[in-house]
Amino acid sequence: MAAPRLTVVGSINLDLVAQADRLPRPGETVSGARFSRVPGGKGANQAVAAARLGAEVAMIGCVGDDELAEGALAGLREARVEEGWLVKDAPTGIALVTVDAAGETTIVVAPGANAELRPDDLSLGDADAVLCQQEIPADAVARAAELAPRFFLNAAPARDGAAPAAELTIVNRLELDALGERRGLVCLTLGAEGAVLLEDGREVARAAPPGVEPVDGTAAGDAFTACLVVTLLEGRSRDESLQRACAAGALAASRFGAQTSLPTSDEVDALL
Q1: Which domain holds residue 243?
Q2: What does DSSP assign to residue 255?
Q3: Does 225 fall in a domain?
Q4: Is 236 part of any domain?
Q5: What is the pLDDT along the chain (272 residues), one digit of tens a residue?
Q6: To pair with 134 at 20 to 30 A between CA atoms, which of 10, 67, 118, 224?
Q7: What's the CA gap between 166 and 179, in Å, rounded?
Q8: Which residue among 222, 239, 266, 269 is the active-site one?
Q9: Per-residue buried b or exposed e for 151-183, using 16+ beta carbons within 10 Å of the residue's own CB
Q10: Is 266 part of the annotated catalytic residue set?
């Protein structure tokens, strides 16, 4: 089976992560946390995940001309993702992440250079398919959809306004509410309950994740998304693709960090 060629158009961040026993309440300070820097951003996370799962991946996104850019790009370079990113006159995107002992997270993103990605920046080469998220400007997402031979959208985070049509749209309940009625194939993620595939509103597949000990849920959704897209591009059935995606998400949730947690195809096989 030839490896699918996937271009990811999306965000590139550096995650500043504090691990604490519990998350603070509004106005409260929690001390004793452990701090680390981890490459992140939904776009970069999904690009790295797809590469680890066996796809040939290119990444289009933006970083700043600053000291944080190399840290944000480290995971993409390590995964041998093809370089399509640009340097903008803006700070590299930052995510402030807190993680408690049960793996629950809070995340605040300062997009920085990610907000500077323009439609004219996009050149997709010979990709079989394109995967986007919504941490970049809406007009860049729309242009990617126009150029893509096959277009997949993870409509996260939720935002107002219409999103371009996609072969597959991946959302949680909040994001689906923000999108409104959506035609075609939609994957609704349900957290610990797994996920369901809907075609024109009718359920066509459902899967639950394997049981794991949660550690950090930061990139679980990105692992899920990348695995679902890559597996469908490989020509596997919807049922198998959804099952593998749930396993990939579970593996990521059982490990610390964003890109540091993303599984390989062999690891997904082993868990199943």
Answers
A1: 5-12+40-91+115-271
A2: S
A3: yes
A4: yes
A5: 689 999 999 999 999 999 999 998 999 999 999 999 999 999 999 999 999 999 999 999 999 999 999 999 999 999 999 999 999 999 999 999 898 988 888 889 999 999 999 999 998 888 899 999 999 999 999 999 999 999 999 999 999 877 999 999 999 999 999 998 888 899 999 988 899 999 988 999 999 988 888 887 778 999 999 999 999 999 999 999 999 999 999 999 998 877 888 999 999 989 88
A6: 67
A7: 13
A8: 222
A9: bbbbbbeeeeeebbebbbbbbbeebbebbeebe
A10: no
The token duo for 223 is 């692992």
- Does residue 186 fall inside a structural domain? yes
Cα(69)–Cα(12) distance, integer angstroms: 9
As beta bridge partners, residue 207 has: 195
Does the bond joining 157 to the residue before it have cis omega, within 30 degrees of 0? yes
Q: What is the CATH number of the domain that holds 262?
A: 3.40.1190.20
Could you give the number of structural domains in the chain?
1
